[in-house]
Amino acid sequence: MSEEDLDIDLDDLQRRMDGAMAALRTEFASLRTGRASAAMLEPVMVEAYGQRTPINQVGTINVPEPRMVTINVWDKSMVGKVEKAIRESGLGINPQLNGTIIMLPIPELNEERRRELTRVAAQYAEHARVAIRNVRRDGMDQLKKAKAAGMSEDEQKIWSDEIQELTDKAIAAVDKALETKQEEIMQV
Protein backbone atom coordinates (compact mmCIF):
# COMPACT_ATOMS: atom_id res chain seq x y z
CA MET A 1 0.00 0.00 0.00
CA SER A 2 1.29 3.45 -0.83
CA GLU A 3 1.23 6.37 1.61
CA GLU A 4 -1.60 7.98 -0.41
CA ASP A 5 -3.87 4.97 0.13
CA LEU A 6 -3.58 5.49 3.88
CA ASP A 7 -4.65 9.16 3.78
CA ILE A 8 -8.24 10.09 4.55
CA ASP A 9 -9.83 12.72 2.29
CA LEU A 10 -10.83 15.35 4.87
CA ASP A 11 -11.69 17.83 2.11
CA ASP A 12 -14.30 15.42 0.77
CA LEU A 13 -15.77 14.91 4.24
CA GLN A 14 -15.82 18.70 4.81
CA ARG A 15 -17.49 19.26 1.42
CA ARG A 16 -20.19 16.70 2.22
CA MET A 17 -20.83 18.22 5.65
CA ASP A 18 -21.04 21.67 4.03
CA GLY A 19 -23.58 20.19 1.61
CA ALA A 20 -25.76 19.06 4.53
CA MET A 21 -25.54 22.59 5.94
CA ALA A 22 -26.49 24.12 2.57
CA ALA A 23 -29.50 21.81 2.35
CA LEU A 24 -30.53 22.90 5.85
CA ARG A 25 -30.29 26.58 4.89
CA THR A 26 -32.50 25.90 1.86
CA GLU A 27 -35.08 24.12 4.02
CA PHE A 28 -34.99 26.96 6.57
CA ALA A 29 -35.51 29.51 3.79
CA SER A 30 -38.72 27.71 2.81
CA LEU A 31 -40.15 28.14 6.32
CA ARG A 32 -42.52 31.04 6.56
CA THR A 33 -41.68 33.60 9.24
CA GLY A 34 -44.49 36.08 8.63
CA ARG A 35 -42.33 37.97 6.13
CA ALA A 36 -42.60 37.49 2.39
CA SER A 37 -39.72 35.66 0.71
CA ALA A 38 -39.33 34.17 -2.75
CA ALA A 39 -37.44 31.26 -1.15
CA MET A 40 -40.58 30.07 0.63
CA LEU A 41 -41.89 28.88 -2.76
CA GLU A 42 -38.78 26.81 -3.62
CA PRO A 43 -40.22 23.46 -2.44
CA VAL A 44 -43.47 23.99 -4.41
CA MET A 45 -43.61 21.85 -7.54
CA VAL A 46 -46.11 22.41 -10.37
CA GLU A 47 -47.46 19.70 -12.68
CA ALA A 48 -46.30 21.36 -15.92
CA TYR A 49 -45.91 19.91 -19.40
CA GLY A 50 -46.16 16.33 -18.16
CA GLN A 51 -43.65 16.58 -15.30
CA ARG A 52 -43.16 18.12 -11.87
CA THR A 53 -41.43 21.46 -12.29
CA PRO A 54 -40.18 23.99 -9.72
CA ILE A 55 -42.50 26.99 -9.53
CA ASN A 56 -39.69 29.41 -10.49
CA GLN A 57 -39.47 27.68 -13.90
CA VAL A 58 -43.05 28.55 -14.88
CA GLY A 59 -43.11 32.19 -13.76
CA THR A 60 -41.27 35.12 -12.24
CA ILE A 61 -41.43 35.38 -8.45
CA ASN A 62 -41.30 38.88 -6.91
CA VAL A 63 -41.65 40.34 -3.43
CA PRO A 64 -43.14 43.81 -4.03
CA GLU A 65 -43.83 44.47 -0.34
CA PRO A 66 -43.01 42.80 3.02
CA ARG A 67 -46.25 40.82 3.21
CA MET A 68 -46.83 40.01 -0.47
CA VAL A 69 -45.32 37.61 -2.99
CA THR A 70 -46.38 37.74 -6.63
CA ILE A 71 -45.87 35.16 -9.34
CA ASN A 72 -46.12 36.33 -12.94
CA VAL A 73 -46.93 33.07 -14.75
CA TRP A 74 -45.50 33.05 -18.27
CA ASP A 75 -48.00 30.62 -19.83
CA LYS A 76 -51.68 31.54 -19.29
CA SER A 77 -52.69 27.88 -19.39
CA MET A 78 -50.48 27.21 -16.33
CA VAL A 79 -52.09 29.76 -13.97
CA GLY A 80 -54.63 27.27 -12.59
CA LYS A 81 -51.99 24.59 -12.08
CA VAL A 82 -49.67 26.99 -10.25
CA GLU A 83 -52.54 28.16 -8.03
CA LYS A 84 -53.47 24.54 -7.26
CA ALA A 85 -49.85 23.65 -6.43
CA ILE A 86 -49.64 26.55 -3.96
CA ARG A 87 -52.95 25.62 -2.30
CA GLU A 88 -51.82 21.99 -1.90
CA SER A 89 -48.28 22.85 -0.76
CA GLY A 90 -49.18 23.22 2.92
CA LEU A 91 -47.75 26.75 3.10
CA GLY A 92 -51.03 28.04 4.51
CA ILE A 93 -51.29 30.79 1.88
CA ASN A 94 -54.45 31.58 -0.07
CA PRO A 95 -53.51 32.65 -3.65
CA GLN A 96 -55.46 35.46 -5.36
CA LEU A 97 -55.61 35.62 -9.15
CA ASN A 98 -55.21 38.78 -11.21
CA GLY A 99 -54.91 37.66 -14.85
CA THR A 100 -51.58 35.84 -15.19
CA ILE A 101 -50.34 37.26 -11.88
CA ILE A 102 -50.92 35.24 -8.73
CA MET A 103 -50.73 37.30 -5.55
CA LEU A 104 -49.88 35.61 -2.27
CA PRO A 105 -50.71 37.78 0.74
CA ILE A 106 -48.67 36.52 3.71
CA PRO A 107 -50.90 36.44 6.79
CA GLU A 108 -49.62 37.28 10.27
CA LEU A 109 -48.56 34.11 12.10
CA ASN A 110 -50.39 33.21 15.28
CA GLU A 111 -48.60 31.80 18.34
CA GLU A 112 -49.67 28.21 17.66
CA ARG A 113 -48.41 28.33 14.05
CA ARG A 114 -45.12 29.87 15.20
CA ARG A 115 -44.58 27.01 17.68
CA GLU A 116 -45.43 24.49 14.97
CA LEU A 117 -42.88 26.10 12.61
CA THR A 118 -40.17 25.97 15.30
CA ARG A 119 -40.82 22.22 15.63
CA VAL A 120 -40.52 21.83 11.84
CA ALA A 121 -37.24 23.78 11.93
CA ALA A 122 -35.99 21.45 14.68
CA GLN A 123 -36.85 18.43 12.49
CA TYR A 124 -34.93 19.94 9.56
CA ALA A 125 -31.94 20.52 11.87
CA GLU A 126 -32.08 16.92 13.11
CA HIS A 127 -32.03 15.66 9.50
CA ALA A 128 -28.91 17.77 8.90
CA ARG A 129 -27.27 16.37 12.06
CA VAL A 130 -28.01 12.82 10.90
CA ALA A 131 -26.50 13.58 7.47
CA ILE A 132 -23.37 14.98 9.14
CA ARG A 133 -23.06 11.95 11.42
CA ASN A 134 -23.40 9.70 8.35
CA VAL A 135 -20.47 11.54 6.74
CA ARG A 136 -18.51 11.05 9.99
CA ARG A 137 -19.32 7.33 9.91
CA ASP A 138 -18.05 7.12 6.31
CA GLY A 139 -14.82 8.80 7.41
CA MET A 140 -14.42 6.36 10.29
CA ASP A 141 -15.04 3.46 7.87
CA GLN A 142 -12.24 4.82 5.67
CA LEU A 143 -10.03 4.85 8.77
CA LYS A 144 -10.81 1.20 9.53
CA LYS A 145 -9.85 0.25 5.97
CA ALA A 146 -6.65 2.29 6.26
CA LYS A 147 -5.81 0.59 9.55
CA ALA A 148 -6.31 -2.80 7.90
CA ALA A 149 -4.00 -1.59 5.13
CA GLY A 150 -1.24 -0.81 7.60
CA MET A 151 -1.96 2.58 9.21
CA SER A 152 -0.36 2.96 12.64
CA GLU A 153 -2.44 3.38 15.82
CA ASP A 154 -1.04 6.90 16.31
CA GLU A 155 -1.97 7.99 12.78
CA GLN A 156 -5.41 6.47 13.19
CA LYS A 157 -5.93 8.44 16.43
CA ILE A 158 -4.84 11.70 14.75
CA TRP A 159 -7.19 11.15 11.79
CA SER A 160 -10.02 10.10 14.10
CA ASP A 161 -9.61 13.31 16.13
CA GLU A 162 -9.62 15.43 12.96
CA ILE A 163 -12.81 13.76 11.66
CA GLN A 164 -14.46 14.25 15.06
CA GLU A 165 -13.41 17.92 15.08
CA LEU A 166 -14.99 18.44 11.63
CA THR A 167 -18.16 16.76 12.86
CA ASP A 168 -18.32 18.84 16.04
CA LYS A 169 -17.89 22.09 14.08
CA ALA A 170 -20.60 21.12 11.57
CA ILE A 171 -23.08 20.12 14.30
CA ALA A 172 -22.36 23.35 16.19
CA ALA A 173 -23.13 25.28 12.98
CA VAL A 174 -26.44 23.39 12.62
CA ASP A 175 -27.36 24.18 16.24
CA LYS A 176 -26.54 27.87 15.78
CA ALA A 177 -28.55 28.06 12.54
CA LEU A 178 -31.51 26.39 14.27
CA GLU A 179 -31.36 28.78 17.21
CA THR A 180 -31.27 31.78 14.85
CA LYS A 181 -34.18 30.46 12.77
CA GLN A 182 -36.31 29.71 15.85
CA GLU A 183 -35.73 33.24 17.16
CA GLU A 184 -36.70 34.63 13.75
CA ILE A 185 -39.91 32.55 13.70
CA MET A 186 -40.94 33.52 17.23
CA GLN A 187 -40.34 37.22 16.57
CA VAL A 188 -43.67 39.07 16.47
Automatic annotation (TrEMBL):
Function: Responsible for the release of ribosomes from messenger RNA at the termination of protein biosynthesis. May increase the efficiency of translation by recycling ribosomes from one round of translation to another.
Assigned protein family: Belongs to the RRF family.
UniProt key word Nuclease: no
Domain Ribosome recycling factor: 24-186
The encoding gene: frr
Name the UniProt record assigns to this protein: Ribosome-recycling factor
Compartments it resides in: Cytoplasm
InterPro entries (alphabetical): Ribosome_recyc_fac (IPR002661), Ribosome_recyc_fac_dom (IPR023584), RRF_sf (IPR036191)
UniProt GO cellular component terms: cytosol
Pfam families: RRF (PF01765)
Gene3D superfamilies: 3.30.1360.40, Ribosome-recycling factor
Ranges annotated as spanning the membrane: none
Keyword terms of this UniProt record: Cytoplasm, Protein biosynthesis
Organism field: Pseudoruegeria aquimaris
Lineage of the species this protein comes from: Bacteria, Pseudomonadati, Pseudomonadota, Alphaproteobacteria, Rhodobacterales
UniProt record, GO biological process: cytoplasmic translational termination
MF-aspect GO terms: ribosomal large subunit binding
